[in-house]
User: Which sequence fits this backbone?
């Protein structure tokens, strides 16, 4: 059994013990602590040969420690400055740096899921099954930036635009692409009405039809070396699996959206709007895979949106009695859980590039 299969096996064993057999608020905390530690060990204690870009990050790490001027030649200055601080004050060892980064990524993730998810098992399963978890083995800078974006969700909820802006700007010093999330605060607070959804449907349709032209325009506006970027990221064809999945869960969420209960539904309104932006960006990935990478800042919130959508089944504009609501919720949950466990196993069976065969740094 390879370590990624062991990872999902332990995840399911812990979930049965602490979320099914023992069902208390304390057991949920224990579950999240155990999964956090498990992820930190797996990602943070890996050998530098694990992950496509890890060896390149190792070279950057030691170059930064030996030459402080190197920091100021880099675009994502915050990341390299953090490397310098950690390497100078704590420990000038690249393996320690990987462990440090893993702690920064997985501790906030656990806190966000605990406080804002109504189905923590499904939230983690979504995180593991999509590219977020596997991406942490390779895209260290963007993984840190995505963590910052997750934290910024707190300030969207608390209606604190200045803290939101500061958090996004700090995230952008880790990876400049995080700036794509800057408009989210204002878009996420839009009231969801039938007219609003009709207009958005038309806009999304136009974006899809003109995705090549829109994609090229945005690439040249955002990147100075646009031609090089486009040569690196291949184009895909059609709508794409992620786009279809977002459409599916948005349809599910909007069916059961409670348009009258605006105060209690604030969180799901914010997440719905974020997922709508995720769809807009994702459909442009037909022009270039670059937009799938950019969309990670929005699509990451699927780990909160889908669990909270399932929780709202039968409570919105379409009402159900308690028995029917429970039956539908259980059925929908089983379908998604079964699909994403299967999807995770499929990805592992395909062989993860430079992740399998896995080895720890001391091997």
Assistant:
């Amino acid at each position: 059994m390879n370590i990624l299969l062991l990872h999902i096996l332990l995840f399911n064993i812990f979930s049965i013990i602490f979320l099914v057999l023992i069902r208390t608020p304390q057991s949920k905390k224990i579950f999240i602590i155990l999964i956090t530690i498990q992820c930190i060990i797996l990602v943070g204690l890996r050998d530098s040969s694990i992950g496509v870009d890890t060896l390149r990050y190792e070279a950057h790490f030691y170059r930064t420690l030996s030459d402080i001027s190197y920091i100021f030649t880099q675009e994502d200055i915050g990341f390299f400055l953090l490397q310098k601080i950690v390497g100078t004050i704590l420990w000038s060892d690249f393996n320690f740096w990987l462990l440090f980064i893993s702690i920064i990524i997985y501790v906030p993730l656990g806190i966000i899921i605990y406080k804002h998810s109504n189905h923590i098992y499904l939230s983690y399963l979504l995180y593991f099954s999509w590219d977020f978890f596997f991406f942490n083995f390779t895209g260290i800078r963007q993984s840190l930036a995505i963590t910052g974006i997750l934290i910024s969700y707190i300030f969207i909820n608390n209606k604190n635009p200045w803290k939101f802006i500061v958090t996004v700007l700090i995230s952008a010093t880790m990876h400049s692409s995080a700036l794509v999330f800057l408009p989210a605060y204002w878009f996420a607070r839009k009231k969801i009405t039938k007219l609003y959804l009709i207009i958005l449907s038309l806009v999304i349709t136009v974006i899809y039809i003109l995705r090549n032209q829109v994609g090229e325009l945005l690439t040249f506006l955002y990147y100075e070396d646009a031609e090089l970027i486009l040569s690196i990221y291949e184009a895909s064809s059609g709508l794409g699996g992620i786009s279809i999945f977002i459409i599916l869960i948005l349809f599910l969420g909007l069916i059961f959206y409670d348009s009258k209960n605006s105060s209690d539904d604030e969180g799901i309104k914010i997440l719905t709007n974020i997922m709508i932006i995720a769809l807009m960006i994702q459909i442009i990935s037909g022009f270039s895979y670059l937009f799938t990478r950019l969309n990670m800042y929005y699509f990451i919130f699927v780990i909160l949106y889908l669990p909270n959508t399932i929780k709202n089944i039968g409570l919105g504009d379409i009402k159900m009695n308690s028995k029917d609501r429970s039956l539908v919720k259980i059925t929908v949950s089983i379908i998604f859980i079964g699909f994403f466990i299967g999807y995770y196993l499929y990805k592992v069976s395909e062989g993860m590039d430079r992740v399998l065969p896995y080895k720890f740094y001391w091997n």
